[in-house]
């Protein structure tokens, strides 16, 4: 039997470990590449497949590797083991045993219940009122619930290694989206650490040890007091951050051991608050607030809420009197508002049974005194506000959107379970249940808290500076103070532990090149460099020093992450890819889109400028990964979306041919490769790039001779060479290599089979055959003429650049010169369109366009020029127009002589190309009619005569002596040669200095016996011109004057 024992994957980052450039999901089956190649297959039942066993393992072997698979990465657990035992990294990691409660539910509770609940919840209700805060809480909780549903669907669609939301988004939406959102999620987690540390310092300096402040607040008021408080936050925040970073650097095991302690603090604090709420419902505590007029006073520096009290000796002023008057006597000069208004005392916690609710709230400008509605006051509206430090003032300008931005971080932390997927016994079961249960629990507590907290005063300054929520705690307010302090410390440590590992996972994926250095760490895998960067970014948040300013920043990054989780689920659901089979069934694409819409709306509700900045950051990272990042194929949904969109577009294109306004050159570029499969004519691709202003399809094809089975490796090398050359010349398109028994058939296959559906080439670009006059290359020009015939039959346009090596590269620039168009016959407008497209490229941009047309004897050249100018005006093409008159003239002796030499050369080449037997038969036949000299000697003399002819010397006598054919056989050849010579003379005269000449390419003769003459005609037509582009239309209009 098959020995199907396989090695379990180690957790120390082996060759298939997460983040080393070879992700697990690169193989269709987990660990399928770990099957030993040396396994021997005993028995004869599988002999039929024994030759394929190396690449296709037995099912039993595959199942064994799947059963032994462990998705536990080298996380904090393994780091702890590595610190305690150096050999731990060499041993297989045991299967994790954490369930839903410990692995998902409680970590989510710990991350959701945090600093905002303890420090800002009562303030939010006091400012926004019950209804406003209920709307805020309901929106935020709905967003996280919808996101949790989408996340549960993604997390249960296969094995999710460590990496949490980053892994899910990157594998669902591709490396570009994954990298951008992953970095944003990393920044959000890092700023969350800064927020927790600031909350920790706020609790310490305001509620636990106010006298520990380095910058004293006594005697300061207004901006000075605010600046001193912020400086204290910066100094202490930096110290706490440094201490926490050292703890994380020294060993994560200390953080893991304290995690349960911090979680216990959170749970005890929540229980203490709601125990106090129940108690105060029946026995409201004596918790007075002092009101002067309708202004709330800071309960500090006085003990009795009254101006005067009656004693045995009479009426005596109180300490409150001394705060507003210049002396303690009754005739003292006092503050005007103090003198005109009475002092009253109200209960800060009236109790549920009192029926007093703050339904609508009240928003304030910064520095405005907090006033209690329903109490009359006497004040001069023009009088300035004095004794500012005696009143409770609004420390920031409040409005609804600000409250949303400050509150949203309190519902984050729903990813805590998915981030620990490697530690779970059954992640696909625990993540949905634990996350949704945690969100349900916290949402109910938050929604209930909007009603209970509505009974509290708005600011702690009015209640002796105590933590407002702590006044309700049972049995003592210190339960909340100490519990919230340790819970914020624990949350800060968790952020400093998780954020570097997230950055390390991104760096090890290799999708962001400049982050690769942060993938390295200590010997046990601790992300040292990532921790250092995280501490620096966290320090920038601490330097802001305001909890209310940092909260909207991390809200942006978390909301963007949640938005893309919803997008990933919606895309995968709508695409219906075969691999989308989540075990969690309670999802729908409409819910995902609703969650995505809520996230996007909340981003702009919180802060529109922060939202724009976050989107710009994500867009820049996206484009950077797109252009500079590593190529990754993760089977993501964006690729599937591209396939669906491409299929839809192709089906639409099948409905009919494109309108003339939508016509653009869809190029099939035919290039040749040498024996090493390197491109022989790179300037062909340069010209292709310069023609691509039309943004059409480009297919670069080449033909190889042989059979597919024997020449497949050469075809792969040729394809790689084409791709590399296309990348060098910045040609965006596709490449195709065809193998056939001969090059002629291979080229024909390319022309016939290129493209797909309605997206097919309509123009063929092929270079003029070099050295076609040489006897050994006779098949080259024959193939070329057949290609011209095939493009004509297929109604394809044809572009033939002559002397392609003289064409400019993409790096060259023409600062002057012209592109001359010789419009001899109408070809559908190709000659007009091509110069326009060329001039869109920076190489030809400064060249002007000139159009020449030919007038015959019966034509009115003046009217032709006027009509052509009007035509170009309607085409919106700027060009100079010139009409060249060509009068009828007698055919010169030079024309006759050139035609004679051409025909004789054709006969000689035909004789040379005969086989030996055919040559002998031809010689026997020629003995009765004429004597034909040795072909090799004839060709030598012919070349000499042709050189004399091209230099202007008439070799009539030598030709008559050499050849015995008599006269020219085909008089039509004389007429064609006459036309070619006359046109060439005019073109050479007018366009000698042109940077490029475009002219109509005449079609080949219908009689194949004159193919070699056709090449001579084209050679004569373009003689003496440096750069020529022969153009042959496809038989349809490609340009129009209509809009």
Automatic annotation (TrEMBL):
Q: Which Gene3D superfamilies match?
A: Amino acid/polyamine transporter I
MF terms from GO for this chain are:
potassium:chloride symporter activity
Q: Which reaction does it catalyse?
A: K(+)(in) + chloride(in) = K(+)(out) + chloride(out)
* Tree of life domain: Eukaryota
Mainly localized where?
membrane
A cellular component term, taken from the record's GO annotations: synapse
Any keyword Phosphoprotein?
A: yes
Asked if the keyword Amino-acid biosynthesis belongs to this entry, the reply reads no
The family line of this record is:
Belongs to the SLC12A transporter family. K/Cl co-transporter subfamily.
Q: What is this protein called?
A: Solute carrier family 12 member 5a
Taxonomic lineage of this organism? Answer: Eukaryota, Metazoa, Chordata, Craniata, Vertebrata
Gene that specifies this protein: slc12a5a
